[in-house]
Amino acid sequence: MGRLLHAGWCEDAELIPVARKPAPGCHVWGPGQSPRGLPQVDAIAAFWGVTPGEGGDLSQNVALAWEAQALGAALRARVVLHASSVAVYAPSDGDLTEEAARGAPNAYGAAKSDMEDALSTLPKTGPRAVSLRIGSVAGAESLFASLAQSRAITLDRFADGCGPVRSYIAPTDLARVVSTLAICEAEILPPALNVAAPRPVAMADIVAAAGREVVWRDAPVGARQRVTLSTARLQSLCPLTPDAASPSHLVAEWRRLAGVPA
Question: Above 70 in pLDDT, residue 32?
């Protein structure tokens, strides 16, 4: 997600990429290292963390959040934007507001929820911590990984005859959100913020926009048809147009930034 954000950055705010290993155009810094040599900034976008499938310790997401806050303080940032996830929420069939119950059904969501709890104990001094509960980022989740590899995509079909629905956002729109929040007055930013396009998207529509074929299967027990976010709070801070949820827009931005041919 961080690489896509870097590739899609076209905002007025200057982006200063930081990586743990040498990479083109990036400062090199990692947890425990001195921030000497890094410039002062208005905001830190902490788009790092341990994710499922890496074989790492998910509990390290708390320690990484603390590291991001410490880095923000050292660089005199006003705000630190932490990459949380829609996965922190308990299952629901409706659009999830920031006040919806947390109760993640998987270890990753629980780890991100623990991260948010840890950030809530921070003293009022230092950078303001904002947990971005990000939906599905086009190009950084399983559907788009499958689109890059296969002509036929298997989706679950539920009792109503329809498939999964999710809240997506294109990397370029995520960049706009990050840059806008970076220059907001810290005092108006909430401790948690849902981040996605204004409307949910049917995964089958994304598959169709990519010119791929859907292969349907009966949804297994426990599968979730809807995982969708209310973005009213985000829209008040950084309005995104309805086109941000267009399947063709999501696919086009993924192809452009990831270099995937049509």
Answer: yes
For the domain with range 2-258, which CATH number is right: 3.40.50.720, 3.30.565.10, 3.40.718.10, 1.10.287.130?
3.40.50.720
- The mean pLDDT value of the chain amounts to 94
Angle at 50 between CA 49 and CA 51, to 5 degrees: 115
Nearest alpha-carbon partner for 84 in 95, 71, 68: 68
Q: CB within 8 A of 78, min separation 6: which ones?
A: 42, 43, 127, 128, 186
CA distances to 48, 68, 69, 146 from 73, in Å: 18, 9, 6, 40
Side-chain-facing half-sphere of 228: CA atoms under 13 Å: 18
Where do the structural domains in the chain lie, given as residue ranges? 2-258
What whole-number percentage of the chain has pLDDT above 70?
100
pLDDT value at 102 more than 90? yes
Determine the Cα–Cα distance for residues 76 and 25; give it in Å rounded to an integer: 22
Confidence tier at 23 by pLDDT (50, 70, 90): confident
Q: What whole-number distance in Å separates Cα of residue 94 and Cα of residue 19? A: 37
CA distance 25 to 44: 17
- As a whole number, mean pLDDT of residues 122-132 equals 93
pTM over the 0.85 mark: yes
Alpha helices (H) along 19-74: 60-74
pLDDT reported for residue 54: 65
